Fold:
Amino acid sequence: MFATQIVIDDAMAQNLFQPIVSEAAEPRSSPLLQDGEVSPIFVDSRDHAGALRAASDPQADIEHANGVEANLSTDRKPSGKLAVIVGTLGRSNSIDLLVEFGKFNVEAATR
Structure:
């Protein structure tokens, strides 16, 4: 199971209803589950209550679909190369750092 990065660029904006989860790897995708290993989920504990609650949704979805529970962390950033990061711009240090280092294009996501 793979999830496309949730960064809305011009191509995605033209078709917002395209699937973001697939069974096979695609360009700009990251595995949620691969070889029995699940990407951990991280949300900043100082984020809005809605973001904290929303972080449990993909955790439940992955477990329901595959029978494997993803680790959900609020204070300890996950180790490894891959993680699902849930957060609010201006409330999540991780999201803000992604923006600062050019890994998340805020302008494209807010058009």
Summary: The longest helix spans residues 56-66.
